[in-house]
Specification:
Elements: H1 8-14, H2 17-28, E1 31-32, H3 33-39, H4 45-57, E2 61-66, E3 69-74, H5 77-86, H6 88-107
Antiparallel strand pairs: 1-3, 2-3
């Protein structure tokens, strides 16, 4: 596999704790850039926008402009793709085991 894996940008974006906190805020609902700036009073607006640009480049945020407002929406698809690539094969056997156990318990 090459060093230019399609998920490199996602991992880079998720490596920063401030960007993960931004995604946490967007998980509940879309927010304007101004609202996100208020959540990070120690950062300049420019710094918050740079973080949003990294998230946007990674496909983790979708930006929609509405007049002067810039709405930021969480896009969970890249995270789901990473989950499916790295974790789903480990989860499936456990889910199958739990299903077998549930069936046995229902039989009794």
């Amino acid at each position: 596999m090459s060093g230019n894996d399609e998920n490199d940008g996602v991992f880079k974006a998720l490596a920063d704790p401030t960007r993960r906190r931004i995604l946490d805020y967007l998980r509940d609902q879309p927010r304007t850039t101004g609202e996100l700036c208020e959540k990070f009073p120690k950062l300049t607006r420019f710094a918050v926008m740079k973080h949003l640009d990294v998230l946007d480049d990674a496909g983790l945020v979708v930006v929609r402009k509405e007049g002067r407002l810039r709405w930021n929406h969480l896009n969970a698809v890249p995270i789901q793709m990473i989950y499916e690539r790295w974790m789903s094969r480990f989860a499936a056997p456990h889910a199958a085991s739990l299903l077998k156990l549930a069936r046995k318990l229902e039989e009794k």
